[in-house]
């Protein structure tokens, strides 16, 4: 069961950006419109959220960081799918879809105000590591998207340091059963309001607590109902082959 501190206080004016199921996120409309810069950590082979954000607010600059996506990544990606085509593991149509994904990546990130850097969210002195402070230096009206498979906990203190320039924070918390104290301490210090929470059903549930949740925070969000709506009408199951997870909160 989740702490009541993780529960939105009201129902807010949200929009869903990104592909269906896993990869799509709910974000508050007004603060998304006010965003000048979207800084996104965690990319892999899905930039549908960033593409939809750009359509929703064309004036936004978009900077993505993911150290795993580089020339070697795409070489393996395309070679692997070519092998699957040769051995009849996938259709030619499916293979063309994988090639088009690479071409879409090149097209989207070749725009002058949309960039991807092969750097990791973290701490330390390695050349391919970047932290929140450096990534947002000199910016204002920033929205953050963070989906970095557990590294988000290293960034929470830095997020608090730059919270005055934030419009939105979309973040996926992993292994929350062992990190709940860190999450609650963060929420108590964070000025932005919780506007959405949803369980990612691709991981386990223990003692009525999901191991992974997606949360959205927003600055001065527009309220449309006094009581929260959980699940939100725009929510989608992350993994369609598994049942959704009901969120239960303590009183």
Give the secondary structure arrangement, pairings included.
Layout: E1 11-12, E2 14-17, E3 25-28, H1 29-34, E4 37-41, H2 48-56, E5 61-65, H3 71-86, H4 92-108, E6 114-117, E7 120-121, E8 129-130, H5 132-135, E9 142-146, H6 156-161, E10 166-173, H7 176-189, E11 193-199, E12 205-206, E13 209-210, E14 213-218, E15 223-225
Parallel strand pairs: 4-5, 4-9, 5-6, 7-8, 9-10
Antiparallel strand pairs: 1-15, 2-3, 10-14, 11-14, 12-13
Structure description:
The protein has 251 residues and is an alpha/beta fold. It is built from 7 helices and 15 strands. The protein has 2 domains: 174 residues, Rossmann fold (3-Layer(aba) Sandwich); 38 residues. Helix content is 29%, strand content 24%. Strand 12 and strand 13 form a beta hairpin. The chain is globular. It starts with 10 loop residues before the first strand and ends in a 26-residue tail after the last strand.
């Amino acid at each position: 069961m989740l702490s009541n501190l993780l529960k939105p206080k009201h129902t807010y004016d949200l929009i869903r950006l990104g592909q269906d199921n896993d990869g799509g996120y709910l974000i508050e409309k007004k603060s998304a419109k006010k965003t000048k810069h979207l800084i996104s950590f965690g990319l892999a082979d899905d930039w549908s959220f960033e593409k939809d954000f750009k359509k929703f607010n064309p004036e936004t600059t978009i900077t993505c960081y993911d150290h795993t996506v580089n020339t070697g990544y795409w070489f393996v990606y395309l070679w692997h799918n070519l092998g699957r085509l040769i051995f009849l593991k996938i259709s030619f149509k499916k293979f063309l879809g994988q090639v088009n994904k690479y071409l879409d990546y090149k097209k989207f990130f070749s725009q002058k105000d949309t960039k991807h850097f092969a750097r990791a969210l973290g701490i330390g002195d390695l050349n391919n590591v970047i932290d929140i402070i450096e990534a947002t230096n000199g910016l204002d009206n920033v929205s953050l998207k963070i989906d970095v498979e557990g590294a988000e906990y290293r960034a929470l203190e830095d997020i608090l340091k730059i919270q005055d320039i934030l419009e939105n924070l979309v973040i996926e918390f992993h292994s929350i059963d062992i990190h709940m104290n860190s999450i609650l301490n963060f929420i108590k210090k964070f000025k932005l309001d919780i506007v959405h929470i949803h369980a990612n059903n691709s991981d386990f549930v223990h003692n009525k607590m999901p191991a992974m949740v997606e949360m959205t925070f927003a600055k001065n969000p527009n309220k449309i109902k006094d009581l929260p709506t959980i699940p939100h009408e725009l929510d989608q199951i992350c993994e369609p082959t598994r049942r959704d997870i009901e969120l239960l909160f303590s009183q």
